[in-house]
Design brief:
The complex is a heterotetramer.
Chain A lengths: L3 H4 L6 H10 L2 H8 L1 H5 L6 E7 L6 H20 L11 E7 L4 H13 L4 E4 L3 H14 L3 E3 L15 E3 L4 H19 L5 E7 L2 H17 L4 E8 L7 H9 L4 E5 L2 H13 L6 E4 L8 H7 L7 E4 L7 H14 L5 H20 L4 H9 L27 E5 L9 E5 L21
Parallel strand pairs in A: 1-2, 1-3, 3-4, 4-5, 6-7, 6-8, 8-9, 9-10
Antiparallel strand pairs in A: 10-11, 11-12
Helix pairs in contact in A: 2-13, 5-14, 6-7, 8-9, 14-15
Chain C lengths: L1 H16 L6 H27 L7 H18 L3 H25 L4 H19 L11 E2 L15 H23 L1 H11 L1 H6 L4 H27 L1 E2 L1 H5 L1 H14 L6 H20 L7 H16 L4 H18 L1
Antiparallel strand pairs in C: 1-2
Helix pairs in contact in C: 2-6, 2-7, 2-9, 2-11, 2-12, 3-4, 3-5, 3-9, 4-9, 6-7, 6-9, 7-9, 11-12, 12-13
Chain D lengths: L2 H32 L6 H19 L3 H27 L4 H23 L14 E4 L2 E4 H23 L1 H11 L1 H6 L4 H23 L10 H15 L4 H18 L8 H15 L10
Antiparallel strand pairs in D: 1-2
Classes of the chains: A alpha/beta, B alpha/beta, C mainly alpha, D mainly alpha.
């Protein structure tokens, strides 16, 4: 069991917490209150650290990931902890990077000092870099849940692993699905606009996407590329420029705030489009965004390393998450969840908390049926997850706003068999 | 010898002419009074002379050399120092340090500057206050400090802007003797003063200005008898001072 | 005064020996204490002693970090040399800004906004230079060696940052007691009065901003090789500018010990409050407490904590003398 | 150059400019009266946005209708801040004034994080999606509303300061604090009211901004920077100047989209800022020294 204080998570009062823990699995009540635990001497908990941007500009995603980490640890514990180590429980130590690299480093160091044998986190690539170097210095394994920039795993660090897909994999998926959609629907957008937030992720993603698209043989011309600062609050001038470029399709690489502004502005200025196709970025699948944008977000196609709805682990995790926070477990939180599962799996196989043993175990990871799309989690020599893959999702009408996001490809995971493309114009949706 | 010569000094602020073609001369060793009612432009004259606000027209010759348009610190380094009507002590440092700033201009060694500053402080009657923070000084002492700071720069000419304002009778007497002492060391002085007793006691000659123009000039006894000056400007204030 | 020096020597000896007992994380806290004390001290030269308020000092941190990193990555020049190059470049930029600002006599609030403007413009320019990583920032390689200014453990960083802090204290103490320092203080106290006494306030303001910018830039190189990631928004942004002035203001501006005292109080405080409240559920509470404390200190100790410490230490010494 | 695009950008720039003016108004007013720069300015706008967000989601009342309530709430916040903090630091050296106000911003930002969470909130509002089409150009209704009300507010406050007795006392206190004390004006009370009034305009700005952009706790910094530029352009303490400064900035930023990428938008604004500071440091329209 984790510390009470740790579990006093935002938005969760004691009562809902008890319900959640109940829902987290029958196992929990058995191990916590059942006879077996009382008879057995409780082994010391194994500490793992999570550094996420819980405050600062990326707090929205960071808090979601933190919750994913927490629920995963809770789940492992409810299933009997780390069995190879006498059922030792996981204790998740939390750190807040405040969205700043130096704070992230300091927090990671604190968690290591407090006994964390492995670390996970931290969403932002820059913070990831600071922590990756620290982990190299301290020789502590670091399994990044989300942090897409390839540069981090290219440094040749021994202690760094990444569950999330590489930027290359992400971009490759986008082009693959774009080909698929245009072939299946027998329509071909000719003119395209690429937009992105001007940060490490946005620039790298959209740049890579443009390069891949050029090589793909698709006859799509990029007529305009618009980069705007992170945290922009007015896109009217940019959309005016988009309109003047007369595109058929927009490829936005965005963040949750600007996706809302962009879509509304496209509506207001009546930009005629076949549709919006996001090559892979937040901003199109978060429950808040879906709720706020209503009809306007319908039919957006998003290539994203999405959750795997048919995975029993996901179903369980999503149920717990929904109950605790009133939202579904979206991709970032699900990857955070996966990160902790992978850590637990490595601990299970290593049977020890020694760094060498853990490294060895992590390299041999073969984690079947993660709650996210793709094959088993396996790390290559760089530490990248070769099992990670993207799916194509589309926001489709559904009376329950929480069920609007549907996987449309690959077919084996699909939740909806129809893809709407071209989409009705934004202002023709009643 | 002429220490300071002012030719046709003119300065206006947005249509209002504060100093209008003013000319006068300060001789070596002289104490010259500059008087006039409030708003007559006296402080503007000082600002023009000391480089704080360059004149629009006219020139200022210090020891025969034009200083018009020079920066205040350069003018001071030549030997023309001024005090401010609203005294400007360096509030959070000690009285000694205040004076040392001026002393260090001509003196590179800290200890020599300290020695010199102590001498000046003793002369100004502030010796016992040397280590007090300047913001702890009452107004009369601040006035003396203002003068002491100037003296530390080894001036040839001192421009004193109402150093006696706000002092009581005893303090005025002390200030008069201090200024005399300074003057006796060969420092020429141009002083703006409302305290007529001070002007009468110290200055060999007086210039009266009103609306930026010179309306009278001469020895103080003569100027105060000038009917024009009395009527046009001195009026009741002066008669009270006499009474 | 001699007692103070003795006390400081003892404190220094203790600090030098501390790594024998401390774990790496706590060493890391000390690194941040020294780092921010050093940054605060550098800022102190300009604002604390000369009175020109800069809210754009992140500019110099950024220039220092980017210059040495660029030189190391492009030509393999050791950051120890690149650090000086960064210092000089930063000094040049500062002199340009100082020239414009001081020449035109920008005071108070106006100078503040000029410094913010310069930092923001530089941030935007760097964000558009591909060779400097543009928006993506620069990921440094980790090749631990003395020449590379990179180390495996926290110990070397501890001693380097401590060295920075101690040297900056000595430098500022030397400035403070020199002719230069006195003229800077005169400029701070009253620019007109200083001019009237023959102090070339423009010149001394320029000297102050040059020293301050040079010193600040050195910290940038340290940051780069400690954190391994440079990003225009973190290195040139206003958040850093504000962070680095909190300590000297709270400790006491215009004093050698102020920035150090401020850092010894504020840095652990933010670490501890974060560590305590970051456990989940009350995200942001630690920053609220940090803010409230800063307000209280300024309201009730307007000249910084140092004044009260001075009073307390005098009282202690005096009562010791009586016995 | 594309004429349609230029026209569209011009219209948007002008409308955005009015909003920028409103963002700068409170800062200018507070500086004009007290000589204090409110570094928590942006965070107060964000508070305004959250309050109107709350009223909208809890009671379904649209931001345009709740405008005055929001202004009143932020007025109260401003009064509290002034009487507890700012009145005590008003005579401090400027560097010392920075810390409490920056800290206040930090507190407000993180209180928003605690109360409303980190999410981007952007509920649909009544006029949020409406637009008027004139030829090829589009005029965004919520922007137009904000623009019109921004001008109205500026004029109201301007007239209030010119005509009303309280306004005259405020101006007297702004011109000469000691003089105002001598003629019996309760300067502390005047300060409280002026700060609160400045805060109220930020609250109103927040309500008008809610339909235009998602609100997050972290939004404040950008508003503070925009307000700085606007206020320097127009002249510190010059209220009508703030409006004009806003219009110039809005137009310049928007039209820069014709030639420059959006990431350089702020380079235009800060470039203008620095040039103005160097050649007309007291603003294009004169300001308080």
């Amino acid at each position: 069991m984790m510390d009470r204080k740790d579990q006093n998570v935002k938005g969760m009062n004691r009562r809902t917490f008890i319900k959640v823990s109940g829902a987290a699995g029958l196992g929990l009540s058995l191990t916590s209150f059942g006879v077996p635990t009382l008879l057995r001497a409780e082994p010391a908990p194994i500490k793992i650290g999570s550094v996420q941007p819980a405050t600062g500009p990326l707090a929205m995603i960071g808090q979601g990931q933190r919750r994913g980490n927490l629920l995963a640890a809770e789940y492992i514990n409810s299933m009997g902890g780390i069995k190879s180590m006498d059922g030792a429980k996981l204790k998740l130590l939390l750190g807040d990077s405040e969205s700043k690299p130096e704070v992230g480093r300091q927090e990671a160091d604190r968690l290591i000092k407090e006994g964390a044998v492995m670390l996970t986190g931290p969403f932002q690539s820059g913070v990831a870099m600071a922590i990756a170097t620290l982990c190299e210095q301290r020789q502590v394994p670091f399994v990044m849940d989300v942090a897409a920039l390839d540069a981090i795993t290219r440094k040749g660090y021994k202690y760094t692993f990444r569950v999330f897909i590489t930027a290359k994999g992400l971009v490759g998926g986008a082009v693959k699905y774009l080909k698929m959609v245009t072939k299946e629907k027998k329509v071909m957008p000719k003119r395209a606009v690429v937009t992105n937030t001007a940060d490490a992720f946005g620039k790298g993603m959209s740049g890579g996407f443009i390069k891949f698209l050029g090589k793909s043989g698709l006859p799509i011309e990029i007529v305009e590329r618009i980069q705007y600062p992170l945290g922009i609050h007015d896109l009217s001038a940019e959309v005016a420029r988009i309109k003047a470029a007369k595109p058929d399709i927009i490829f936005p690489v965005s963040r949750p705030g600007d996706s809302v502004i962009l879509t509304r502005e496209l509506y207001k200025q009546r930009v005629e489009l076949m549709g919006i196709f996001c090559p892979g970025s937040p901003g199109w699948y978060e429950p808040e965004v879906i709720k706020d944008l209503g009809d306007l977000i319908l039919y957006v196609l998003i290539n994203v390393p999405w959750i795997n709805p048919s995975s029993p682990v996901y179903k369980q995790a999503n149920k717990a998450f929904l109950k605790a926070y009133g939202k579904y477990l979206d991709t970032n939180s699900a990857y955070a969840y996966t990160g902790v599962l992978v850590l637990a799996d490595a601990l299970e196989r290593a049977g020890s908390t020694k760094p060498e043993a853990l490294l060895k175990a992590l390299h041999k990871t073969y984690y079947k049926d993660p709650p996210v799309l793709g094959g088993p989690v396996q790390f290559n020599e760089r530490g990248d997850n070769i099992g990670a893959m993207t799916g194509l999702i589309q926001v489709q009408p559904d009376p329950d706003p929480l069920k609007r996001v549907k996987i449309v490809a690959p077919k084996e995971f699909a939740q909806s068999d129809k893809i709407v493309f071209p989409a009705p114009q934004l202002w023709e949706r009643g | 010898m002429s220490m300071l010569k002012v030719n046709h000094l003119t300065k206006s602020f947005g249509g209002l002419t504060a100093v209008d073609s003013l000319s006068f001369e300060l001789k070596e060793g002289e104490i010259l009074g500059l008087i006039g009612p409030n708003g007559a432009g006296k402080t503007t004259v000082f600002n023009c002379l000391s480089g704080f606000s360059p004149p629009d027209l006219g020139e200022v010759l210090f020891k025969g050399q034009a200083v018009t348009g020079m920066k205040p610190h350069a003018i001071c380094q030549m030997g023309l120092a001024r005090t401010f009507q609203i005294v400007k002590p360096f509030l959070t440092i000690s009285v000694l340090d205040n004076v040392m700033i001026g002393a260090l201009i001509g003196e590179r060694s800290i200890s020599a500057a300290e020695k010199k500053s102590m001498e000046i402080l003793h002369m100004a009657g502030l010796g016992s206050m040397a280590n007090t923070e300047a913001q702890g000084l009452p107004l009369p002492m601040r006035k003396r400090l203002e003068l002491a700071k100037c003296l530390a720069t080894d001036p040839l000419v001192l421009l004193l802007d109402e150093v006696m304002a706000g002092l009581n009778a005893t303090e005025v007497d002390e200030m008069i003797s201090l200024i005399r002492q300074v003057n006796s060391k060969g420092v020429s002085i141009l002083m703006i003063e409302h305290v007529m007793r001070g002007v009468m006691a110290l200055s060999q000659s007086v210039i009266v200005i009103n609306y930026g123009r010179k309306i009278a000039e001469g020895p103080p006894e003569q100027v105060v008898k000038d009917q024009g000056v009395i009527e046009a400007y001195l009026g009741k204030e002066f008669l009270d001072a006499q009474g | 005064m001699n007692r103070l020096y003795m006390f400081m020597a003892a404190a220094l000896a203790l600090i030098l020996a501390l790594p024998l007992w401390l774990d790496k994380y706590t060493l890391g806290i000390f690194v941040m204490i020294f780092y921010y004390a050093y940054l605060g001290q550098s800022w102190n030269v300009l604002t604390g002693y000369t009175g020109h308020i800069s809210l754009g000092h992140a500019l110099y941190v950024g220039i220092g970090a980017y210059t040495s990193t660029f030189l190391a990555q492009t030509w393999g020049i050791s950051p120890w040399i690149g650090m000086l190059a960064g210092g000089l470049l930063s000094m040049t930029v500062a002199l340009c800004m100082g020239y414009l600002g001081f020449r035109f006599g920008l005071r108070g609030v106006y100078f503040v906004i000029l410094t913010i403007g310069f930092a923001e413009i530089t941030r935007l320019i760097v964000s558009h230079i591909e060779a400097l990583g543009s928006f993506s920032g620069i990921f440094l390689d980790f090749n631990p060696s003395f020449i590379n200014f990179q180390f495996r453990g926290n110990m070397p960083y501890y001693y380097i940052s401590l060295g920075f802090m101690v040297v900056s204290m000595i430098v500022v103490r030397l400035i403070e007691t020199s002719r230069l320092g006195r003229f800077m203080i005169a400029t701070r106290e009253d620019e007109d009065a200083a001019e009237a006494l023959g102090v070339n306030t423009f010149k001394y303001s320029m000297i102050a901003i040059a020293i301050s910018a040079f010193m600040t830039a050195l910290a940038g190189t340290f940051y780069a090789n400690y954190i391994f990631y440079l990003h225009p928004a973190t290195l040139f942004g206003m958040a850093l500018s504000i962070e680095l002035i909190m300590r000297p203001i709270i400790g006491g501006m215009g004093t050698v010990l102020g920035p150090v005292i401020g850092s010894f109080i504020l840095t652990p405080l933010s670490e501890i409050s974060r560590a305590y409240f970051a456990k989940g559920g009350l995200e942001g509470l630690h920053l609220i407490l940090y803010g409230i404390l800063a307000i209280l200190v300024v309201l009730f100790m307007p000249r910084g904590i140092i004044v009260y410490l001075k009073g307390a230490s005098q009282w202690i010494f005096n009562s010791a003398d009586k016995k | 150059m594309n004429a349609d695009l230029a026209l569209q950008l011009g219209i948007q720039g002008l409308l955005t400019g009015g909003i920028y003016g409103l963002i700068g108004l409170g800062l200018s007013l507070i500086f004009g009266v007290m000589g204090v720069i409110n570094f928590a300015h942006g965070q107060m706008i964000v508070m305004g946005m959250y309050v109107s967000f709350w009223i909208l989601t809890l009671f379904g009342i649209d931001p345009y209708l709740s405008l005055m309530v929001v202004a009143a709430v932020i007025f109260a916040l401003g009064y509290l801040v002034q009487s507890t903090i700012v009145n005590r630091i008003i005579d401090y050296p400027e560097a010392m004034q920075v810390v409490p106000l920056v800290s206040l911003g930090l507190i407000l930002e993180n209180m928003a994080l605690l109360f409303w969470g980190p999410d981007h909130r952007s509920p649909e509002t009544a006029l949020g999606l409406d637009a008027i089409r004139v030829g090829s150009a589009t005029i965004d209704v919520s922007r137009l509303m904000a623009f019109g009300l921004a001008i109205l507010f500026t004029l109201c406050i301007f007239l209030f300061l010119k005509k009303s007795n309280l306004g005259k006392s405020i101006r007297a206190a702004a011109d000469n604090r000691t003089g105002a004390i001598l003629v019996g004006i309760k300067v502390n009370r005047i300060n409280n009211i002026s700060f609160a009034l400045g805060a109220a305009t930020t609250g109103a700005a927040g309500a008008l901004l809610l339909p235009l952009m998602p609100v997050t706790p972290h939004l404040g910094h950008d508003f503070t920077l925009i307000a700085f530029v606007v206020v320097i352009l127009g002249g510190m303490g010059n209220l009508l100047g703030a409006l004009f400064g806003g219009l110039i900035l809005g137009l310049a930023e928007s039209l820069s989209a014709l030639w420059l990428p959006a990431t350089m938008k702020h380079l235009v604004s800060f470039g203008i800022l620095v040039v103005i500071m160097l050649f007309k440091p007291h603003g294009l329209f004169g300001g308080k020294r």
